[in-house]
Amino acid sequence: MVTILRGLLIAFGALFGGAYVKDYAKSRKQNKLGEENIFKAIGIGLGTDFFDTLGIGAFAPTIACLKVFKQNVDDRLIPGTLNVAHTIPVIIEALIFTTVIKVDPVTLLSLLGAAVLGSYIGAGIISKMDERKIQLVMGIALAITAVLMLLSHPSINLMPGGGEETGLTGIKLIAGIIGNFILGALMTAGIGLYAPCMAMVYFLGMSSKVAFPIMMGSCALLMPVASIKFIKEEAYSRKTAMGITIGGSIGVFIAAFLVGNMPMNLLKYLVILVIAYTSIQMLKSALKSKEEVNEKLSA
């Protein structure tokens, strides 16, 4: 079953890659690549996808880097650039982690399928919900999770929690499917899947390492379809995207080696930091949105 998943990832990657390279070559021939610095983009990709592989996420850091390094990508093209640029690195992440980290095939495929269904079926529902309230609830929930994980860490061991299971059965499997369906739907509201997935894996009693193939596999199945649409609509910065893809692919291999060989206790600390960081970012976004709403009302 996992072999089927890898086959799907390779097929999606090939389909996307063909459209990507064809569009880039055509644009280069027509001198439509733009004036961005591809070497800066390679550096941005190397750094952001390195940390993406560790579970931090790549979109927000990439946006920050584009601004800091004055890559001058039109704001209108940023969403497409992010998706197109990071699709290949995320597929590589998923292929690596489904190979080096043991996960029960039924659990892996069930949760990945749930995330994909959630992103499509749940999109209409989530898109109508208050994004600030979602961010606020998720931010608080992740903060509580980070504290609980820290207290249950073997080095502290003040309360039970977590586990070393590589798969789910019965009611836990059903809970995992429902949870990843919701997380897939929340992606349509701009809520990243990585940290919440890590938190869910912890509460269901699975090993911290298991979160990596689940969360990366979920995104790897979603991104190629969306990215092909951005390519067809020419809604992305070609030179910047290609540079990030090249650098990002290198960054993934470097980081995957570290994660795959990291001692379990150290990895748990990394997961706690990722969840805490994401919680802070979500709460900041929620509070910022509230301030903007208040300013509009008082204007």
Strand content: under 5%
CA-based shape: globular
- CA(first)-CA(last) distance: 58 Å
Rg value: 19 Å
Spans of at least 5 consecutive residues whose pLDDT stays below 50 are: none
Structural class: mainly alpha
- From N to C, what is the helix and strand string? HHHHHHHHHHHH
Mean pLDDT, as a whole number?
85
* Main β-sheet description: none
- Helical percent range? over 70%
Got a strand count? 0
Compute the number of helices.
12
Q: How many domain units?
A: 1
Question: How would you describe the overall organization of this protein?
Answer:
The protein is mainly alpha-helical and 299 residues long. It has one domain. It has 12 helices and no strands.
What secondary-structure arrangement, pairings included, does this model have?
Elements: H1 2-29, H2 38-53, H3 59-68, H4 78-100, H5 105-121, H6 123-126, H7 131-152, H8 170-186, H9 194-203, H10 211-232, H11 238-260, H12 264-298
Main location: membrane
Pfam family, one: TauE
Keywords: Cell membrane, Membrane, Transmembrane, Transmembrane helix
Core attributes:
membrane, 12 helices, 299 residues, mainly alpha
Task: Summarize the entry for a quick read.
Its main location: membrane. The protein is an all-alpha fold and 299 residues long.
